[in-house]
Design a protein that fits this description.
Layout (H helix, E strand, L loop, with lengths): L13 E2 L13 E5 L3 H12 L3 E6 L2 H4 L8 E4 H6 L3 E4 L13 H4 L3 E4 L13 H8 L4 E4 L6 H6 L7 E4 L4 H13 L3 E4 L6 H6 L9 H30 L7 H35 L8 H8 L1 H21 L4 H16 L8 H27 L2 H4 L4 H27 L16 H5 L1 H13 L2 H11 L7 E7 L5 E7 L3
Helix pairs in contact: 9-10, 9-12, 10-12, 10-16, 10-18, 12-14, 14-16
The structure holds NADP nicotinamide-adenine-dinucleotide phosphate (NAP).
Length: 488
């Protein structure tokens, strides 16, 4: 999968926006059954969009005051008689109470806006259930992914996509037209069998983020434990020093950059594995294993979590001098210096190391911010393919290299100092270098002209061992054709 895939909308269905078959619908009368939160917001939005609205309630007198004066609130049977398109803004459990209206509803379009409380709660979707109760009506599933709040704010804020499905093209087009006039983007999700999928969408909690979040938490836990052993448990066991105060800031702050750095390398590692697989099999048409496919699809989220950890690390680092423990240490050093009558403790090498370390860290964070911003769909959509791939692929790789420099300047020569090996455990930064350096070396290897050429050919459709037609100039200057194996 290419970096461009990360910018693709999550719903790969056809947007109906700009469909020439969709004509303006404002002025038409729309019915709404129910007088709850959704019905109210819907009525307000419809009135603001220029529609005439008639609301059907079991108790119109009591509910009329809740609706804009331009909307007519009447009994359910009265309301449905006045329109051909009716939004059913009642819960699935109450659909059967509408069966008395079956005769007046016959031949009309019913828009099912309902949601469930659990994923795949019922065997059949709510829309299919509604269609089974009213076989003489045409049911369209739609608007359920839009909240009452978004309806009121008029699609300026919140989700703009209205997912629509129905077995009747004409009815679907009518509802798409209404959605468009209301300022939403209708998305054709196909026939009624998609209703179940549409009803599950509002119930899913960050589906694309689950794996990346677990990955980040897992890495955080591993590095946190490792740092805890080195920074808190080791001094306690070896020197009976209580360093528990380091846990909230110091240990967390040494853990966060480790997670950020390794996560950033995990954005580019699947690309390397994919390239290795393509080189090995000599084709791009062989399917990647499922785990690699999943990994490739989650790169954007992994990258954003890497940026999140890096940003937290920056904030924690800025706060380090604010700590009381830091001030005590400073005073202690000054006192020691006075007692030992040392006038100058300036270490040139340390000064340079710190200057370079901070500067490179700032550049890395800046590059990560750029990657994060350009991964937002609204920004990604304004970039062409070359710009997007330059930022996400080339600058992303530069960010990884700069982060590696940041890590190396942090470590400096500590890897060679035996005092740094607490319980024989190497400094944490040496562990974090493992995956990023592998990725960087692999990328350098892929950039060798012979490898790069082969990869390019594979990605353009060339296959190892496949026989292709070729045309060669003969010694006489004429062209002769034949067949050969393309990998010869
Ligand atoms: P609600 O505030 O509880 O309103 C439900 C309405 O259903 C009632 O006001 C009632 O109006 C009507 N109703 C008709 N027959 C009924 C019966 N037998 N028993 C009880 N009420 C009956 O619910 P809501 O939040 O507006 O949600 C309505 C539908 O929209 C649901 O299917 C929900 O899943 C969907 N939805 C809601 C939101 C949201 O943000 N709220 C978002 C997406 C989808 P009358 O008393 O006037 O008849």
């Amino acid at each position: 999968m290419s970096g461009r895939d990360m910018a693709k909308p999550l719903l790969g269905h056809r947007s109906m926006e700009g469909d020439p078959s969709i004509t303006p619908a404002a002025g038409r009368t729309i019915g709404v059954l129910g007088s709850g939160d959704f019905a109210r917001s819907l009525a307000i939005r419809l009135v603001c969009s220029g529609f005439k609205v008639v609301v059907g309630s079991r108790n119109p007198k009591r509910k009329a005051g809740l609706f804009p004066s331009a909307a007519e609130v009447t009994f359910q049977a009265e309301a449905v008689k006045k329109t051909d398109v009716i939004f059913v803004a009642v819960f699935r459990e109450h659909y059967s109470t509408l069966c008395d209206l079956a005769d007046v509803l016959a031949g009309k379009i019913l828009v099912d806006v309902s949601n469930n409380t659990e994923i795949n709660h019922h065997k059949e979707s709510n829309a299919e259930y509604l269609a089974s109760l009213f076989p003489a009506c045409t049911v369209v599933k739609g608007f359920n992914v839009i909240s009452a709040w978004t309806l009121q704010s008029g699609a300026r804020d919140g989700n703009k996509q209205v997912l629509i499905c129905s077995n009747n093209q004409e009815a679907k087009r009518t509802v798409a037209e209404i959605a468009q006039v209301m300022g939403f983007t209708p998305v054709d999700m196909g026939c009624m069998s998609s209703a179940c999928e549409i009803e599950n969408i509002p119930l899913r909690l960050l589906p694309a983020w689950k794996i990346p979040i677990f990955l980040a938490l897992g890495l955080f836990l591993c590095f946190f434990t490792y740092n805890l052993i080195r920074q808190v448990i080791h001094p306690y066991i070896r020197e009976q020093k209580n360093k528990l105060y380091k846990i909230p800031i110091e240990v967390v702050n040494t853990t966060l950059p480790c997670v950020a750095y390794v996560m950033l390398s995990l954005v580019y590692l699947p690309g390397v594995l994919a390239a290795c697989s393509q080189l090995y099999y000599g084709t791009k048409y062989r399917r990647f294993p499922d785990w690699l496919d999943q990994w490739l699809q989650h790169r954007k989220q992994i990258g954003l979590l890497s940026f999140f950890c890096a940003a937290l690390h920056a904030v924690y680092s800025l706060c380090l001098p604010m700590r009381r423990s830091h001030r005590y240490q400073l005073i202690e050093t000054a006192v020691k210096q006075a007692v030992e009558k040392k006038m100058n403790i300036w270490v040139e090498e340390e000064v340079w190391r710190m200057e370079i370390y901070i500067s490179v860290g700032i550049i890395a964070l800046g590059l990560l911010s750029l990657l994060a911003i350009t991964s937002l769909p609204s920004i990604a959509n304004s970039l062409n393919w070359r710009e997007f791939s330059f930022i996400q692929s080339t600058l992303g790789f530069v960010a990884l290299v700069v982060s590696t420099l940041h890590t190396l300047t942090y470590g400096w020569s500590r890897a060679f100092d035996e005092n740094q090996y607490k319980f024989y455990l190497p400094p944490t930064y040496t562990l974090t270098l493992l995956v990023p350096c592998t990725v960087i070396l692999a990328k350098v290897f892929f950039s060798l002209p012979c490898i790069q050429q082969r990869l390019l050919r594979i990605r353009r459709g060339w296959e190892k061992g496949r026989y292709v037609k070729f045309v060669l100039p003969s010694t006489t200057g004429e062209y002769s054709s034949g067949e050969t194996s393309s990998n010869v």
